[in-house]
Amino acid sequence: MASLYYSSTRGAGERVTASQAVLKGLADDGGLFVPETIPALPDSLENLAKLSYQELAKKIMGCFLADYTEEELSYCIEGAYDEKFDTPSIAPLHQVGSEYFLELFHGKTIAFKDMALSVLPYLMTVAAKKNSLQQKIIILTATSGDTGKAAMAGFADVPGTGIIVFYPKDGVSPVQEKQMVTQTGDNTCVIAIRGNFDDAQRAVKKMFSDKKLAEELLSAGYVFSSANSINIGRLVPQVVYYIYAYLQLMNKGAVRAGEQINVVVPTGNFGNILAAYYAKKMGLPVKKLICASNRNKVLTDFFATGVYDRRREFYLTSSPSMDILVSSNLERLIYEIAGCDAAATKAFMDELSEKGLYTLTEEMKARLADFCAGFASEEETAAAIKKIYDADGYVIDTHTAVGAAVLEKYRAETGDETIAVTASTASPFKFARSVLHAIDPACDGHTDEEQFADLERVSGVARPAAIRELETAKVRHTGVTDEAGMEAAVKAYLGI
To answer: What is 105-169 written as a DSSP string?
Structure first.
């Protein structure tokens, strides 16, 4: 019998097991599933430090996914973290001077989303069997650039599943777009929308909570689920790599067991930093969680003022995966700091939907002490790429650079020299044009192919397989719609 259950942040949804939460993705009341308690670390840091990434993942994920057997978890994790990753360590820690970058881009699509989306299809198909699900699972997701490709790479041709991805037509990098529109697999569908990520995410969440649509799907033999970080099956695997980063610091002799570190996370939808928060709640010695935003600094303002206000101009930046004004995963943190009060959380989310903003109570603001936040302008982002390259020859992508710039400002403002780990969320090859513009503007007029060669020369690193494959990949998905047409597009693809 499972010992850890999940409930909705908004209270009306039923209490479910981990496998049921993974299958559903979103609760029936529109809320997000949260564990009823955050489990403690399953062993001492000294013992955990002896484990491989896969062994650690089994232990940490097993704490959260309590109704999965040890054999089921082994099957999921060993199938996910294999030669699809180009390094045996899966998530290596790279030192640059006195700073550390946790490289989360060694998977199939060269972005951190691979860390969770490699394992989610396994978790989901096992969950379907456990719960005797007869319907075909349709993964419906909105992406700001990386989730879509990583999800499709994971779910392509997985029996009993289909996947539909919506992305903002002019809001992703050329590499991100080409990765998506060339995706193979008979069960994959990619549709661009005229609008931004928030538009796509809003329509997707609306479809999830549409009971009439759910009935139509059911009668046609389908059920929706999500691959966004709103799915707890996405969030739990992300907890693992923060613990792994700390253990690597221990093994390098950089910290002693129990010594605190800071964690810096470039953040858009708030899932990646929430996973770090869960790691801290489990007992990982984390002092500050530093939330790094780009010019779309809704989260920076939220942590500074206690007011979440999405009523602002939306900017397209060189770090497009963070171009988000409605950070869906923040709802899980709101639930936590509201004292797990689902009614209060629902009221905040209703206010955000109806008025575009909400304001925390003073008591809730006081519970945000684990976090601090900052943002980096486009100029500061480029300067961080250049500075790290000039100092060490190490090349980081634009999102990681936002984290590096915010950390530098945080240190200057606070004097806090605590060892910090910055989540390095994507390969620089995914954003070659912006990265090269920062390092060597003379490359600006070059073609995409020339820029990949430039970046190989500059970085001393061969282009990843994911980039090489794009050179001959054929475009397979050409659909475009607006927000109002998204439901019709889903129905047309499913033939209902």
So the answer is: --STTSBTHHHHHTTHHHHHHHHHHHTT--SEEEEEEE-SSSHHHHHHHHHTT-TTEEEEEEEET
Q: Cα-Cα-Cα-Cα dihedral of 434, 439, 440, 445, to 10°?
A: 0
Per-residue pLDDT tens digits for 321-351: 999 999 999 999 999 999 999 999 999 999 9
Tokens matching residue 435: 């990265």
Q: Which residue has the tokens 């309590």?
A: 66
Q: How far apart are CA 424 and CA 404, in angstroms?
A: 9
pLDDT, tens digit, for every residue of 446-479?
998 999 999 999 999 999 999 999 989 999 999 9
Indicate the SS3 state at residue 472.
coil
**Mean pLDDT rounded to a whole number for the chain:** 96
Tokens matching residue 288? 């500050």
Own/partner contacts of 414-418, CB < 8 Å, gap of 24 or more, are 416/262, 416/287, 416/288, 418/260, 418/261, 418/262, 418/287, 418/288
Entry pTM: 0.94
CB atoms within 10 A of CB 79: 13
CA-wise closest residue to 65 among 49, 76, 54, 55: 76
Q: Which domains can be identified in the chain, with CATH numbers?
A: 93-110+233-465 (3.40.50.1100)
Of 314, 310, 288, 284, give the one whose Cα is nearest residue 299: 310
Burial category of 487 from C-beta neighbours within 10 Å (exposed 0-12, middle 13-18, buried 19 and up): middle
φ, ψ of residue 239 in degrees (nearest 5): -60, -35
Specify whether the CB–CB gap between 436 and 382 falls below 8 A. Answer: no
If phi > 0 it is left, if psi is from -120 to 50 it is alpha, else beta; for residue 393 that is left
Give ∠ CA 367-305-380 in degrees, rounded to 5: 110
User: Annotated active-site positions, please?
Assistant: 113
pLDDT, position 160: 94
User: What 3-state class would DSSP assign to 365?
Assistant: helix
Q: What percent of the chain has pLDDT over 70?
A: 100
Question: What's the helix, strand, coil split of the chain in %, to 5?
Answer: 50, 15, 35
